[in-house]
Amino acid sequence: MKLPPFQALLDEHSTDLYRFCVATAGWGEADDCFQETWIAALRAYPKLRRADNLRAWLFRIAQNKAIDLHRSRARRPMPVEAVPEMAAAEPVAPALDGQPELWIALRDLPPKQRTAVFCRAVLGMPYDELAALLESSEDAARHNVFEGLKKLREEWTA
Predict the structure, then answer these.
(1) 17 versus 155: which is more confidently predicted?
(2) Within a 13 Å sphere around the CA of 104, how many CA atoms are in the beta-carbon half?
(3) Each residue of 64-112: pLDDT tens digit?
(4) Which of 38, 83, 115, 141 suits a disulfide with 131, CB 3.0-4.6 Å?
(5) Mean pLDDT across the stretch 116-137?
(6) Predicted local confidence at residue 83, as pLDDT
(7) DSSP classification of residue 79
(8) In sequence order, what are the residues at sequence separation of 6 or more whose Cβ sits closer than 8 angstroms to the Cβ of residue 145?
């Protein structure tokens, strides 16, 4: 199976992939997530054996990079005005950076639900492609979209 030139892949999917990175990693981390996604894709591209669903393959890489960024946030030091005498019992939540509350709520969803809701609701990705991205069945992809939207609705009506 012949792969298209990498530049053609970049040109075709960069806009949607960047929007996905913004939604899953946040405005402050989107550029890093986007760049890391394309670097990882470029490294793996020559070794690909199948080219039947390159879009889902790219989104899977982006999803993994967004998860890595979320995990790394927990390890970063948080700036404070003064060091307390005793360590706080609960970690300090990261600043909201003036982002819309919906994107913050979306990023708080479990990774599969976050990806499913964004790809389906924002990108209009069909369920068969979403299932390939999530490495699941179409029914499981539908369930992830349903559960993610349900959690978002519960948070917004509370």
Answers:
(1) 17
(2) 11
(3) 998 888 787 767 777 777 766 665 455 444 444 555 777 778 888 888 8
(4) 141
(5) 87
(6) 64
(7) P
(8) 113, 116, 117, 120, 121, 130
Q: Three-state DSSP class for 38?
A: helix
Alpha-helical runs (H) found in 45-137: 54-75, 101-107, 111-117, 127-134
Q: What is the pLDDT of residue 93?
A: 47
What is the radius of gyration, based on Cα positions, of the chain?
18
Q: Where does the chain show beta strands of DSSP type E? A: none
**Measured between alpha carbons, how far is 153 from 12 in angstroms, rounded to an integer?**
32
Helix, strand and coil percent figures for the chain, each rounded to 5: 70, 0, 30
**d(C-alpha 53, C-alpha 102), whole Å:** 30
Query: In whole angstroms, how far apart are CA 137 and each of 18, 32, 66, 149?
Result: 26, 30, 22, 19
Residue 151 CA to residue 89 CA, distance in Å, equals 27
Start-end of H helices in the chain: 6-25, 27-44, 54-75, 101-107, 111-117, 127-134, 138-157
Q: Which two tokens stand for residue 127?
A: 């369920």
What's the average model confidence in pLDDT over 45-60? 88
